[in-house]
Design brief:
heterodimer; A: mainly alpha; B: 317 residues; alpha/beta; Alpha-Beta Plaits; 2 domains; seven-stranded mixed β-sheet; 11 helices
Amino acid sequence: MRRTRRFLLRFFLAPSFILLYSFTALGNLPHRAHGDGTPLISSRASPSEDVAAAEWFGRSRVFLLLMLPMLFSAALVMQTMVVEKTAKTLEPLLVTPVKTHDLVLGKILAALVFPLLAGYLYLGIYVGVAWLIDKHSDLLRFMFSPRPLIEAFLVMPVSAFANASLAMIVAVRSRDPKTGSLLSSLLTLPGIVLYGTQIALLEVLNQYILLFCVGAVLILAGAGVFFATEAFQREKVFERWDS
Amino acid sequence: MYAIETTALTRAFRRKIAVEGLTLRVPNSVVFGFLGPNGAGKTTTVRMLAGLLPPSSGTAVVAGCPLNGNLEQLRRRIGFLTESPGLYEQLTAWQNLIFFARLYGLSEKNAQSQVGKYLKLLDCWEDRHKPVGTFSKGMRQKTAIVRALVHEPEILFLDEPSSGLDPSTARFFRDFVKSLRASGRTIFLTTHNLAEAEDVCDHIAIMKTRLILEGSQSQIRSELSGNVVTIRFGNSAGPWLAIVQRLEYAEQVTTVDSTLRVNLANPQRDTPRLVRALVEAGADLYAVEPARKSLEEIYLELLDSVAAGGSEAPANV
């Protein structure tokens, strides 16, 4: 139990908080550079500034939240495979009659639950604090408009699912668990690219483009599960790791 | 119909051959001891038979399921106790076992009843809600054996089940394996522990990459013990040594305390003649029996002979 807590603190909670709140602080800098020292979600700002600030914040916050489950679900998929192998629990698991695609899908979905819940928790805290400060702020109105909702409830889980399935392909094809773990860290790159792209295309993105992207990522996720199942031939896992 | 039947089963890892041309027939409802030194290919063989590793060549039928057929069906019919217990340490014994029972397709109710039955049978019931991480090696092994049995498999593979266990737990395991055999299950036991194999196994196979010897334990021991007869006297054997040495059919005679060990050319023909000669000479015979080598002696002699370049052709006894 202590090991789990240490793992969560080290690889999940601490980086999440650092990422989330350091971005918040960074987000404040350009605003303050204009000589306006007022808080971004304050009702004292002029209406136009308030809307602009709220939009920037809302968008960047949701996009940041997109990244967290993507990164952590991939890491968790890899970790589960590494831990199963090092704790020698993989062999008893593979000797059960459970179907390979059930095993693969089960591991991917299990790795999604905690990061997604954490993502929604952070989002909930953010919206809750904004509501406490000003119940009628533009930020809140923006957060409950279609685009952020699509991002939070479609783009975030689907992209996390896609990344986790890609991580599973890496995990099962790795010749040894540690190399797999290192390779899976490369899967953070698509997440960073996606985040950067979304920030760059803030003005262009609308809910229709987003829905199209969700469809595309969903197809990618499906393909990921298919190839992970194909790659995860339980009869080959020991061959790769024992030879 | 055999529980396990393999034909020329071979497994190579790149350039290294782990198992070569293994042809075995394991009868139903026996404890089959699969013996061999470290690196002999025992675990690789068990993994192949459990459908965890594909053979490089050869065929096998396990519990009526060919290895190149429906492996899901095969996995439902076998139980596998791996060399390491492989339990989720942060879960309790109960949680571990229910999880695996559900993976074997048991309903929630059936899983609980099966897990409860075997936990009680193995004296683990009281500790069922403790995390497995707090268990001793023996308790983990017991939990793992419950996991291998919850779905009532026809064949149970036990890979080094008593390795690292204290003598009383090891004894408990041996008795449990015997009780499983009595219930009609076939048990495929790989072990280094020759005393354990001698105690529980009906059939034995000895391998070192290739099969060296296979047969029932009683046949192996009687046929590989040579033509030696042991004669025990009521008093010292010394006075009778010279008499026996004079007999032309006694090839080699040794004495220890009140026992003579006589190597006969043809024990069936010569043993009555030997007894008659001794009785006529006035000896008080206490017992006459064919000498039987222990499994350990046979095992070590066979491996020495293989190491010395002797024939590795399998001997079916």
